[in-house]
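Lecture notes, unit on protein representations.

Consider one protein chain, 126 amino acids long.
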Amino acid sequence: QVQLVESGGGLVQAGGSLRLSCAASGRTFSNYAMGWFRQAPGKEREFVAAISWSGDSTFYADSVRGRFTISRDNAKNTVYLQMNSLKPEDAAVYSCADRHTRDTSANIKRVEYDYWGQGTQVTVSS
């Protein structure tokens, strides 16, 4: 059974940091590009960051570049999102997703992802 389980969300003050984790099971993790997305109330889901199957390529939304870092540990079947200098506008439900691909280009920002986790809430107080 495929599962993506996010954790690490919570309440943080503006300027603070959080580290999100997404643990995958039921697939050969290293065959998949991984992405982080977020959705705030009343807004559409938006791309945040993506990482290629090997971890060699990473891509970010302009709004988070320089503040967020995506990484993965294929031995632990886990992808991470380190979020620094958080802003109130970063508040959202953050979800991870996977895509079966060995593509390492920026296409992984735009592809349709295959499977999604349930999400973890990030709240940023001003």
